[in-house]
Design goal:
two-stranded antiparallel sheet; five-stranded parallel β-sheet; alpha/beta; 215 residues; globular
Length: 215
């Protein structure tokens, strides 16, 4: 057993994890709370997005799924990343698209400084680790954008994120099949614009995978 694994085991004995929803000791998301999650989304739940071959999401963004994702993002519970990524791995295993690398949709540096971590990057790293596929942080966010809201028109949503992403170095991107990772898909405009930047840099195919879809 690696030294890090021994340290983790010791910490779990001294400070057993508690459910982030109900506080029950044992797991970060206990089984009773997990059973309150909505059913996984069907493969055809995500509408066709421009520049994205196909996209999937694990759950609808509602109920306790919404609460867990919000606590992960805004309360700094980065320890949830392996738990949430494992659910994405299940979907990816069943879906089984042909991919060469995992790329995350990045937050703006100002948001990164505020939160201390990039929630989508952690998910991409976990997917990379468990599936043995390279995680390549090749996208950068050039500007901060307003929250994508359903109250916006389709044109407003597209304009909000237009030109927000860039690939400064396309080494390894050209001809690659890319899995693009984000936490929540709302309208699809962000995923579409990130995929556009990847395709401009030579990506052959872009797929999308998110934790949740706000329907």
């Amino acid at each position: 057993m690696k030294l890090r694994d021994l340290a983790d085991s010791a910490l779990r004995l001294l400070f057993p994890p508690r459910c982030v929803l109900c506080g029950r000791e044992g797991d970060l998301i206990c089984e009773p709370c997990r059973r309150t999650f909505p059913a996984r989304l069907d493969a055809d739940a995500i509408p066709k997005l421009s520049g994205v071959r196909a996209a999937r999401a694990v759950w609808p963004y509602e109920g306790n799924v919404r609460e867990v994702v919000r606590r992960y993002k805004y309360n700094g519970l980065r320890s949830l990343a392996p738990v949430l990524a494992s659910e994405m791995v299940h979907v990816l295993f069943e879906w089984n698209p042909s991919i060469d690398m995992v790329v995350h949709v990045p937050v703006h540096p100002a948001r990164l400084r505020e939160r201390g971590f990039d929630q989508s990057e952690l998910l991409a790293r976990e997917l990379s680790r468990t599936r043995g596929i390279a995680a390549v942080p090749c996208l950068i966010r050039l500007r901060e954008t307003d929250v994508q809201a359903r109250a916006m028109s389709a044109a407003q949503r597209a304009a909000n994120v237009r030109g927000a992403f860039h690939v400064p170095n396309d080494d390894g991107i050209r001809g690659a099949n890319v899995l693009l990772i984000d936490d929540v898909l709302t309208t699809g405009a962000t995923l579409t614009e990130a995929a556009r930047a990847l395709r401009r840099s030579g990506a052959k195919t872009v797929y999308g995978l998110t934790l949740a879809h706000e329907t």
